[in-house]
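Troubleshooting log. The previous structure file for this entry was overwritten by mistake, so regenerating from the original sequence record. Sequence copied from the archived sheet and checked twice against the printout by T.R.
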Amino acid sequence: MLTEARIQKDLKPADIDWISALRKPAIRKLTDQGLVSPEWFDDRHLAAIECEEWYPGKRLIVCRNPFLAEECQRKREDLLQATEQGLRVVTEAIQRPKRAYRGKERIQRRVDKVLDKHRMRNHFHVTIADDSLTWQRRDENIRKEAALDGSYLIRTSLPATRISDEKTVQAYKNLSSVAQAFRCFKASELRIRPIHHRTSDRVKAHWLIGMLAYYVERHLRELLAPLIFADEEKPQRKSPVDPARSSSAARKKAASKQTTEGLPVPDFRGVLQSLSSQAKQQVRAKITGSNSFRMLTTPTALQNKALELLGVSLKIKA
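Regenerated output below.
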């Protein structure tokens, strides 16, 4: 969403600072110019670079996630092998003794389908004739792409005196919380859409109510963390680029599906459904016909723990 056009037309006139990221094509251009090199990364897996020619007045921070790099290499090799298998099928069709596949244009169409299916067109050099097909990997292209595996480039208008490289990377990675909030809004709990309003003021009011509801839900999740599938400790990272790892207590809770007190671990919605069964009842004695009293349903162990974490005490006012 944060494109160069939005930065120039919306953020810059409003004097709003920003943190964004560049895509692989932009990183590849910087790599071709010698401005980005894998050897620059330190033990934090990030490096600050300067490129006033292309990005004047902006800070650039190149990050490399070694875990993501391994996954990219694995996926690429799987796609390369799948492409080669598809090309071998075409070759067998060309070489079979009966009803052999012939014609350069026909073979080209089948080869294009294989290359486009796995998006490996730039990684293979293919030679096609009327009755033959040969191919080989473009090792140089593969090597250049592999050099960028797990890499992404963050740029920001904020100077280093206001925010360090590590905190800039961490702030950008906090976008995952924004994505989670959008999922909550649109699909999981709040389901704020569709919006059945026609005027601008009513649409804004609709979203304001949704934001307030999400604010309440977020704090409820933090308070109920010991009871649900959530990590109570702050994720630990050796560097801001590394993925967050769950604590040992959270992994133990997820494996046993029980809290430290032996209660079954529900999800957030399950806790709310359990609390919804709490009720205040009006009891009337049949003998006298007029005397009545109020009482609460007896809470379960799960409900008691949830109310304790929320700091809520159920009492009947006199």
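The mean pLDDT is 83. Archived copy saved in two places this time.
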